[in-house]
Amino acid sequence: MSTQGSGAPIDASGAVPAPIGVFDSGVGGLTVLRALRDALPAEDFIYLGDTARLPYGTKSPETVERYSLQCAEALWVRGIRCLVVACNTASAFSLDALRRRYPDIPVIGVIEPGAAAAVAVSGSQHIAVIGTEATIAAGAYQAAIQRLNGAARVTAAPCSLFVAMAEEGWIEGPIAEAVAHRYLDPIFSATAPAAPAAEVPDTLVLGCTHFPALAAVLRRVLPVTVHIVDSAATTAAAVARRLPARTGSGHTQGTVRWLATDGAARFARVSGIFLGTTLRVGDIEIIDL
Ligand code: DGL
To answer: In this structure, which of 89, 137, 187, 202 has its CB flanked by the most CB atoms within 10 Å?
Structure first.
């Protein structure tokens, strides 16, 4: 494999493999993009954050599906060969519609991989799931976990404020900790001292791609024995399994094209929390859907 001037990989046939499209309502999907780039460093990506219409998690199923189809179309017209729905809310409501609309490319969501990671790590199979209001109301994680283990018990709770806190960069400090206690204590500690072990989940699924930004605070607030699981690494592994293996060698660093629907400066600023590196405002192209 060699590279063109753009840095895009060229396979043995001389063709440049098309990029992988990734979208989320905002910057939360960057947690998934980061894992994708770790798993598939030579791939090129196009990331779209629908920042003009965030949050998705408080919207109706119909609206989330419509927004998701518009995001996917914006990526499709830019020539992607795989679509990663890096948003749990969009995955909960739109995967079927997206797969019907784009039958020729893999369309991969984050819920099945997250559920699989939780079932794999949980000893008691009592699993807690937190996500947006819409994701939890849809019961998508509950169903995905029970498809994998019909005997699993799922305790699910919406934690909508975590999305705004992550977008605001409030991921540490007393406010973040107080909100985390308010959401998680009823699940993990209120009844814990008197309750049998099985009454308290041993695993927490971060069922929203914004939530890994708060992982350090969640870790402090949770009992030490609780496993924290998110979908990023398992989704990346699922994508790697679905894409045809590359031939040739030599291309090691893929590129990312950044798209957002509003607020390039804000997107760039907050991206550091999720990506580990901060983007330059000029690298983010604003598009209309
Ligand atoms: N990051 C999205 C998710 O995983 C949702 C955030 C939002 O409410 O837009 O569900």
So the answer is: 89
Look at residue 5 in the predicted model and tell me its pLDDT.
34
| pTM given for the model | 0.89
- For the question of residue 71 being annotated catalytic, the response is no
Each residue of 169-191: pLDDT tens digit? 899 999 999 999 999 999 997 55
Domain CATH code at residue 56: 3.40.50.1860
Q: What distance in angstroms lies between residue 205's CA and the mean position of ligand 1's atoms? A: 14
Give the pairing of strands 126-131 and 203-207.
parallel
Contact 148, 119 (CB under 8 A): yes
> Domain range holding 73?
4-109+235-286
Active site residue 82: no
Q: Which residues line ligand 1 (CB under 6 A)?
A: 24-26, 28, 54-57, 87-89, 131-132, 135, 163, 208-210
Residue to probe by mutation, ligand 1, list 22, 56, 65, most atoms within 8 Å of CB: 56
Residue 26 has pLDDT above 80, yes or no: yes
55 and 147 assigned to the same domain: no
Q: How many domains does the chain have?
A: 2
Given the CA of residue 209, which atom of ligand 1 is nearest to it?
4
Whether 154 and 226 share a structural domain: yes
pLDDT digits (tens, 9 = 90+) for 206-236: 999 999 999 999 999 999 999 999 989 899 9
Q: Do 120 and 162 fall into the same domain?
A: yes
Separation of first and last alpha carbons in the chain: 35
3-state secondary structure of 49: strand
